[in-house]
Automatic annotation (TrEMBL):
Swiss-Prot/TrEMBL keywords: NAD, Oxidoreductase
GO MF annotations in UniProt: nucleotide binding; oxidoreductase activity
PANTHER family given in the database record: BCDNA.GH03377
Pfam family, one: GFO_IDH_MocA_C3
Domain Gfo/Idh/MocA-like oxidoreductase N-terminal intervals: 11-128
Protein name per its UniProtKB record: Putative dehydrogenase
Source organism of the structure: Bogoriella caseilytica
Length: 666
């Protein structure tokens, strides 16, 4: 530091001197070399704010203040919609800015502010106060040293209590928009914004491009527009999951925290309490952290060029989250049966039952409320219960309870043998987008209706914001059963994430007894929705050798003693990619069972379909619709496939397998 810089006085003007702005007024008094030069607030100041601002000019608007003087720094703590215009005004006047979080009410406003900062050459520090904590250097060192092993993900948990008075304190509180202007208030973007920012930073995601894809689940228990109980899950550009469970409807307030999960331990950071605890290879220990004032850091930046602790561009990842909240469907109301109401003088506390444990599970398991099965979240709607001679053999659900990134779609789960052995799995840890027995395709005109990461030619798997869904649209024939089995005829829609219709599907399910157990027929006719061609592709058709999965797929539970065979080959390597008329899977789960699947029929390219087989990585088998080349369906035309399967108890011998395979394939 030069002698001149050491003695340079830095003038600071406070815009929005009530509310959080009071802290800025107090902070200035503690920073050597900083001097309060003016305040701007449309209302008179009172209490400690008036005392701290005594003797300096008070303007009703920033424009009036800037017409009279040009401070070195302008702090802004005003309603969210005013953040971008006020910050831009200060930057263009030649001031550096300390702007309270969130930066703005939209991604476009954030990008505009970035451009103005670059154009003017001025600096913007964002008021994520925790960015000044020593915790980050400590935790990053622990991760770098391998104390908790390989990084697996980052979770955040926030459970606070806020009454109706909290939403009555200001006109914008609890609002998503006012008079056509985005507000984007809510649990994710306001009270727990620091939790989101901390989790993102510890996951290595600071800039907008560091976030690959986001799903948010917004709910409200209070009678407000915004969310007060929410979960989110995102994946960084490197594929690391970040999840948060947040509520202001808890029974009691607890310290919010961020937890970093590793293969050999965890690091937990209680950011409001300033405490870190590591449970890793060297045991368990904890310590308190220190926080550097962001305003003090900005003053040092002005005086001597110190690096900013919370620069504007480092809020880019958080703004991706805010934008996802802004663009999401309005929060869903939580049904009264899940709520308790506590009356207090002048206010009411609305509490979501057991919300604390669900928020903690989100942070621990890195899954959303819906994926975890929280009682107020969307449930898997039961479409049909399949029975054979009075025995329940399968449940057909609509997929409404499936996370957005997992390709929501109707599927059969659980599916059992007549003896009761389960032979399907859903949302397994290795591939959460696998869903029992289902029809799904990874590349439908560029939309991922399979779930998970998308395979991109010459780039490999990438998490993209391209996920769609397959929805139940009604019955052409209601599910019905007889002594001979049962059947149902269904209408479905294949849609992009924004709801655009890509295709319609006519699906028939038929189930009946068989000599060895019972049979399932899954008949699918997919029709291009518009005049443009419908393309159905796979990782295989996009360049991944041997990765042509998509179409009919059966995810099995954890198995042992697995034997996979066709009429001409045995084993995973030999059967994978084959075109034999049938394939058999014999294994032990709860007990021994056998599946026999016949190669699909359809008459319109079905001869190109191949068997997709996985045993060593995970248990799954399917008939690939687009093994090496995409299926192109002209506008208004259809592609048809019919799949027949046998489900049997025990391990069928070779003669039984061949007989069953011939029957199904015939």
């Amino acid at each position: 530091m030069t002698a001149d810089a050491e003695h340079q006085e830095v003038t600071v003007a406070v815009v929005g001197a009530r509310g959080y702005g009071r802290r800025h007024l107090a902070d200035i008094t503690r920073i050597p070399g900083a001097r309060l030069s003016a305040v701007a607030d449309p209302a008179p100041l009172d209490g400690d704010a008036a005392e701290l601002a005594a003797g300096v000019p008070h303007y009703r608007a920033l424009a009036d203040l800037l017409a009279a003087q040009r401070p070195d720094i302008v702090t802004i703590a005003t309603p969210i919609p005013t953040h971008r215009p006020l910050a831009e005004e200060a930057l263009r006047a030649g001031c550096d800015v300390l702007l309270e979080k969130p930066v703005a009410a939209s991604q476009s406003d954030f990008e505009r502010l970035l451009a103005v900062a670059e154009e003017t050459g001025r600096s913007v520090q964002i008021g994520f106060q925790d960015e000044g904590s020593s915790a980050y250097a400590d935790i990053e060192e622990l991760i770098s040293d391998g104390e908790i092993g390989e990084l697996r993900g980052v979770g955040a948990c926030g459970t606070w209590v806020r009454s109706t008075a909290y939403y009555e304190r200001a006109a914008w509180a609890g609002r998503r928009r006012m008079d056509g202007v985005d507000i984007v208030d809510g649990a994710v973007t306001n009270p727990f914004a620091h939790a989101i920012q901390a989790a993102l930073r510890l996951a290595g995601a600071r800039r907008a491009e560091d976030v690959a894809t986001i799903e948010v689940e917004l709910f409200h228990a209070h009678e407000i527009e915004a969310d007060d109980t929410s979960s989110l899950r995102l994946l960084t550009a490197k594929g690391l999951p970040v999840a948060a469970g947040l509520t202001v409807c808890a029974t009691e307030t607890a310290e919010p925290y961020v937890v970093v999960h590793g293969s050999a331990g965890t690091v937990t950071y209680w950011y409001t309490a300033g405490r870190v605890e590591v449970a890793g290879r060297s045991g368990t220990r904890s310590w308190n952290t220190e926080v550097t004032s962001l305003l003090g850091n900005l003053v040092a930046h002005v005086r001597e060029g110190a690096a900013l602790l919370s620069p504007l561009e480092a809020s880019g990842a958080f703004m991706r989250v805010l934008e996802a909240v802004r663009r999401a469907e309005d929060p869903a109301p939580i049904e009264p049966r899940h709520l308790s109401r506590l009356q207090a003088p002048g206010e009411v506390f609305v509490q979501v039952r057991d919300v604390e444990q669900w928020c903690a599970r989100v942070a621990r398991e890195l899954r959303t409320f819906t994926a975890l099965g929280a009682p107020w979240a969307p449930e898997q709607g039961v479409l049909a219960e399949l029975q054979i001679a009075g025995r329940a053999v399968a449940t057909y659900v609509d997929g409404a309870g499936t996370a957005a990134l997992d390709g929501p779609r109707p599927h059969l789960h659980p599916l059992r043998t007549l003896g009761g052995t389960g032979v399907t799995d859903v949302a397994p840890e290795d591939h959460t987008w696998h869903a029992g027995v289902s029809m799904a395709v990874q590349d439908v005109c560029g939309a991922n209706l399979w779930g998970g990461a998308t395979y991109v030619r010459d780039r490999g798997y990438r998490w993209l914001e391209d996920h769609g869904r397959i929805t139940h649209e009604g019955w052409l024939e209601e599910p019905h059963e007889s002594a001979a089995g049962g059947s149902a005829l269904q209408r479905l829609a294949w849609r992009r994430g924004d709801g655009e219709l890509l295709a319609t599907e006519r699906r028939a399910l038929r189930w009946q007894p068989a000599p060895e157990g019972w049979e399932l027929e899954f008949d699918s006719e997919i029709t291009a929705a518009g005049e443009a061609p419908l393309t159905l592709g796979s990782p295989g058709s996009n360049g991944r050798e041997g990765g042509g999965y998509g179409g009919f797929f059966w995810r099995l539970p954890a198995c042992t003693d697995v034997e996979v065979r066709t009429a001409t080959s045995r084993g995973e390597t030999q059967t994978h990619g084959s075109a034999d008329p049938w394939i058999a899977w014999t294994a032990r789960a709860e007990s021994d069972f056998t599946l026999v699947l016949a190669r699909p029929t359809g008459g319109d390219g079905a001869d190109a379909d191949r068997w997709f087989v996985r045993v060593s990585d995970y248990p799954g088998v399917g008939a690939a619709l687009a093994w090496e080349t995409p299926v192109t369906v002209p506008g208004g035309a259809s592609v048809h496939r019919s799949y027949r399967s046998l489900v049997a108890d025990g391990r069928l011998d070779e003669q039984q397998l061949r007989a069953a395979g011939a029957r199904l394939a015939g």
